[in-house]
Amino acid sequence: MLTREDNEFITRTGPGTPMGDLWRRFWVPALLSTELPDPDCPPVRIKLLNEDLVAFRDTTGKVGLFAANCPHRGASLFFGRNEEEGLRCVYHGWKFDVTGACVDMPNEPPESNFKHKIHHTAYPCLERAGIIWTYMGPRLSTGSGNDLPAFPELEWTQVPEGQYVVGKFLVNSNYLQALEGDIDNSHVPFAHGLLTDPGPSFIERVRGAGRLRQQQQVRSTPGLNTNLLFAQDITPRSVVTETDYGVMMGWRRDADPENYYWRINHWMLPSHVMLASPPGSNMTCNSRVPMDDENSWHFRVSWNSSRPLSDEELNFIKNSGLNYPELEPGTFRPKANKDNDYLIDREWQRSGSVTGIKGTTQQDRAVTESMGAIYDRTKEHLGTSDTVIIAMRRKLMKVARELAEGREPYAATHSEVYRRRGVDMLLKRNASWEEGARELITVGSK
Amino acid sequence: MLTREDNEFITRTGPGTPMGDLWRRFWVPALLSTELPDPDCPPVRIKLLNEDLVAFRDTTGKVGLFAANCPHRGASLFFGRNEEEGLRCVYHGWKFDVTGACVDMPNEPPESNFKHKIHHTAYPCLERAGIIWTYMGPRLSTGSGNDLPAFPELEWTQVPEGQYVVGKFLVNSNYLQALEGDIDNSHVPFAHGLLTDPGPSFIERVRGAGRLRQQQQVRSTPGLNTNLLFAQDITPRSVVTETDYGVMMGWRRDADPENYYWRINHWMLPSHVMLASPPGSNMTCNSRVPMDDENSWHFRVSWNSSRPLSDEELNFIKNSGLNYPELEPGTFRPKANKDNDYLIDREWQRSGSVTGIKGTTQQDRAVTESMGAIYDRTKEHLGTSDTVIIAMRRKLMKVARELAEGREPYAATHSEVYRRRGVDMLLKRNASWEEGARELITVGSK
Amino acid sequence: MLTREDNEFITRTGPGTPMGDLWRRFWVPALLSTELPDPDCPPVRIKLLNEDLVAFRDTTGKVGLFAANCPHRGASLFFGRNEEEGLRCVYHGWKFDVTGACVDMPNEPPESNFKHKIHHTAYPCLERAGIIWTYMGPRLSTGSGNDLPAFPELEWTQVPEGQYVVGKFLVNSNYLQALEGDIDNSHVPFAHGLLTDPGPSFIERVRGAGRLRQQQQVRSTPGLNTNLLFAQDITPRSVVTETDYGVMMGWRRDADPENYYWRINHWMLPSHVMLASPPGSNMTCNSRVPMDDENSWHFRVSWNSSRPLSDEELNFIKNSGLNYPELEPGTFRPKANKDNDYLIDREWQRSGSVTGIKGTTQQDRAVTESMGAIYDRTKEHLGTSDTVIIAMRRKLMKVARELAEGREPYAATHSEVYRRRGVDMLLKRNASWEEGARELITVGSK
What we know:
Chain A is an alpha+beta fold. Helices cover 21% and strands 24% of the residues of chain A. In chain A, strand 16 and strand 17 form a beta hairpin. The model of chain A is unreliable at 197-201 and 207-218 (pLDDT under 50). The B-C interface holds B 177, 180, 186-187, 189-191, 201-203, 206-207, 234-235, 237, 341-342, 344, 346, 349-350, 354-355, 357, 363, 366-368, 370-372, 375-377, 379-386, 389 and C 40, 42, 69, 71-76, 78-79, 81, 83-84, 88-93, 95, 104-110, 112, 114, 117-118.
């Protein structure tokens, strides 16, 4: 439970809010590279952290990300003409390069031309892993030439093209409740559960080992029957460790009298979640970015550390409907959405699926968006299964409060802390999970 | 005319408002029984008194009515799985019975399970006359076993199945202006008027006895030509009497030199209106319930005290379009609504109908909804024809103010005061209307 | 740049606001005469200056313009029955003539009838140039019989039928940013520009004399090649003179070593803009009227002082799509609007049009509406090209502040000050523009 004040504090990310200031210390995913496919292609609108922006790709391929309205008299630069290394406002012809410098002011006579005085709000951009990232915060006083924070060394941003795939989807809720779902392993048997054999009682079936499985086959470490491990213990214990980058969390299930089955995830500031996957298998990361306070962007990444994804894998991820949702044409809004109750099939809910809703992200959005656009956390009742939620919120608010007092977030300028992977594994019951997992969760150590 | 403060006072019914507190002392119609047709059928969303709710019918047929959001982490219980005498949230599997008791918390380990501490907001429900009723207020300290108020003995809730029929419709305005229309007999010749023979002047025709009639044949006491009585006196005098249950009102028209023609209606707290009907004929009651402050539910009941309704009668009520409106499929919103100007036919308005709009409830909604979502009563100009409106508002505000001072409304706990019928009748000009009608308006006395 | 306070001051026109009070000192275009084509035709809804109104034409052809809601119990008079020199509310039959007098109150008995006490809010109307004009302000204390201000003698309201044509369009922005576009000659080569021959650089082409032209042929004084004059100097200097009626403004371009090319426009209170046209040619006036603070009406007039418009001219103005926009059927909203990005053609923007948007008014709306519903002028950066904008705003705020102090606006009661035309002309470089244009800009002097 949060107080009303804390709930406001943690959910609001507009300019000038404490949480908005924190978000503006990090490189954030802004849009897909494919949204700006070619040099001098049409600009696109994008809203991030409650700011209306326009993105464009210039003649040499560089990306510009501008405040949407022209600094002269406010016409939207979305209608701008993208030409010769700059975007020209069509109202009076002012032109800006990707840095925001006004490079032409053709409607002013030479004697009164003041283009050198005009610098439009332009956020620096980088392209990594098929995503255009931006940094919307203040420049650093590094003393060195570069006044931008280093780019976070998330594994999937470091692997060659072909080894990753990225989807982007609109979520009609505040970022935080979406993020809370990402770090919450406790909901998996329910929101993502299937009933394999019909019986008189759902809960008996859930509790009957082997009778529940996830809609999407969970990838397992060779030798582990993950579905079985999941199904035979639906009340995992969770432990957390605060880290430089955020929170490392372990979900522990009874495997056999000697061993625990561990799933270890990472939440990384501000909102990347590295999901547990067996070493060597394809991995998944969810990154959430506030659009405004009532909507957020979901970037969902799958990658393999060591080899290209196969066509079959790519096809499943992109087109099965179980991983990426099908989108309304020309938008990032899923076809199954809150206005149509996610196309819930009540008969299937009765007979085979816990939710009656198809696809992991749809199930997540059904529970997340139905909390309301900004979930009122004064009304919740948390249990031990919510340990990770509590830890994440505390860390997030702590770092934001420290920033408000002048202490910059460590992770924002220490890109190497992002070199972490999620993992699942068996460990002796008396072993330390952090010791046991240390090598497997560290990118580059293997 | 009301002051701005009184208009706020009388129209707002959210939790914590004085009028909201008053509404929460009464059993109110919540939804139709047919909306939950079977045990374990899909839950439905419903909004009442500004509260978002989810209704479901459990395995044994009992109805549950819950605050919409799960008390754990807020996912909507609308997506819940309705199974074995309870509704299970699909986020983490918490399950609640119709009383709101948490009967299962499968994601928490035994040592930390706290289901006995969780009691979800659940409003008690009763089914009467095809309607699921709910009581959203505080429990009574009766000393006896039952801590709920007795159910109001409205005649149509006491007759056997087959003798009543109920419709439910969405009205896009605050409940009060809809209620004001229900008690207002003065508008009938206008909003519901037809012109029987075309002539040069509407008003001459209206005032020419026999030339105006209602679109829907008014049922008459045998021997009374009600249409003629209506038409020959379009300026009825109204008298009111404050009662235990609300207000009894009489509309008096000149019938002949010796007699008055009386139509006697009742407004019963909080918003049932018993319309005048000849003894023995089918009767009508309108019940209004706030959805939110800008929309309301209209329950419209027809019944016969002594015999089942015939197929012909049911067909007329349900399908003629003159009584119940045709609805947009899958909703309770009439097809003729404010977004299409109620399908007004201006040519028909010119030649035959006062409004050019088809159907009694459409005509009522056209005048009621076009006042604005919450009518600004600081701008009105009331006359003697509005005597009943003034009396109803005064009583409603008086009872709400008394409640705010700690005096419970009498009618809420005295169910027998609801045993009243509307009636029409001839009475000698020097007779007392209350004496003359006493027997006919009392259910059970005949 | 305006302060936040001034931006509120100048954009808000509801009842009781200072700028709303100023607007209510002038006759304003309310709707097209064709919207009320016949006596006793159906009423229409119209919103002006944030007031909901209903207009109707009575049996003898007079126009009534009423506050939308009946003064009795608030039903909308839009549903009223238009009959025999008055509009009758269909709720209880009250009837009003065009002056707002209640001429019938049929639901009240004679002894309590109070129709003589009821005077509904009714704004006086006049019809000029195919437009129904209204005056929404206080009556004058003239001592004479007429207590209304004289009608402004705009030339196009004085010429015979056949010599003018009027269009009305909905603009989804505050009136002021639309008005600012009307007086701004500096945007013409950009927002309305075409590129005549493709080349490597837009700006080189713009600056290459003769290579840029307007999408719509600019009408020229015989002997002047206006397109060439426009194209060879895209940085016109502007000068302004405050006048009784508002602001006269001159846009000066270099023509040849001896002469300047001048375009002289007038902004007339509250929001008529007379555009420069060669003497004798067809002329254009844009009149803007606030609908509410976030939307405005655009009345666009073309006329000829001395002869009827030809069928060919009328056809071009109304149907080419370059002058009047094509409208959504049954509305005044253009088909190309902000919801579809004005049907921008990005390929055409690349190859031939600065905006890629077809039609002058569409181009204007693209830049105007994309500023946001109420443009935030605290963020703008004005240059010398914005001299006229600054002068107009200053005058508008000055007159409104004077009115707030009790000084009535001169133009509102001196109709003759509106006898002005826009004009274009060559003048010797050392000549005074005001002297040189004096005769040509004065209606009736020629």
